[in-house]
Amino acid sequence: MLTDIFSSFDPEIYISGRTMYFWLLSISSPLMFFCSFWLSTAPTLRFAFLQLSVMKAQASRTNSLNLPVLHHFLMTLFIFLTSLNLLGLFPYIFSTTSHLMFTLSFGLPLWLMLILSSTFFAPTSFAASLLPAGAPAWLNPFLVLIETISTGVQPGTLSFRLAANMSAGHIVMTLLSIYLMMTFWTTSWNAFCLLLITQISYTMFEGGIALVQAYIFCLLLSLYSDTHPLN
């Protein structure tokens, strides 16, 4: 039983015997999505191809095009995050992308991969990228320090942005649902219909946010690759 608006983010409520169907639904939904790839006319297949084309166009404008592994992984990650974000909007499905540990498990390794690759591939060029060109000599130590800090916080801000935006959307949807049920029993039908329309509209809005947040996550990762030396 949910006790407050934050209970849906607690995985402990999904381990009791009565809530095992929560996990079954969470596991079966992605399987149904990916199994539909075998059907040539499946709507999810056309939707996936649309996502691939959008992400491919964006990644092609950055250095990730010269990093084939990252280039292809970003397109796969975009579909994966979009699927999880959208599935998290459905009732009784655990929203994994609302947790910082989950988003950090993607943001930190991918960012670290770019940093380590730059360090071993061209250490001199990577170190030079920490100092903006044309800066006064007396500012160089401070600029290098600032650039190092800004680079170091990239995985944290990248992961926190996705988790925070998805969590905020789920909290607002929960509050609207609570008020909707209260108006159903206590107030007039006009107020109930108004809140119902608001709930439906906000749910559609959150669906768009789910797509945008997945795109921004992969977009920033592709932009981080611009600092990777090419020679």
TrEMBL record:
Molecular function terms, GO-annotated: proton-transporting ATP synthase activity, rotational mechanism
Family the entry assigns: Belongs to the ATPase A chain family.
Domain of life of the source: Eukaryota
Where is this chain's protein located in or outside the cell? Membrane; Mitochondrion inner membrane
Q: Name one Pfam family in it.
A: ATP-synt_A
Q: Does the keyword Glycoprotein apply?
A: no
Principal location? membrane
Q: Mind telling me what this protein is named?
A: ATP synthase subunit a
Q: What is this entry's stated membrane topology?
A: Multi-pass membrane protein
TM ranges: 20-49, 69-94, 100-122, 170-197, 204-224
UniProt cross-references to PANTHER family, sorted A to Z: ATP SYNTHASE SUBUNIT A
Task: Give the species this sequence originates from.
Answer: Phascolosoma similis
Q: Which UniProt keywords apply?
A: ATP synthesis, CF(0), Hydrogen ion transport, Ion transport, Membrane, Mitochondrion, Transmembrane, Transmembrane helix, Transport
Q: What InterPro entries would the database entry show?
A: ATP_synth_F0_asu (IPR000568), ATP_synth_F0_asu_AS (IPR023011), ATP_synth_F0_asu_bact/mt (IPR045083), F0_ATP_A_sf (IPR035908)
Q: Which Gene3D superfamilies match?
A: ATP synthase, F0 complex, subunit A (1.20.120.220)
Example GO CC term: the record gives: mitochondrial inner membrane
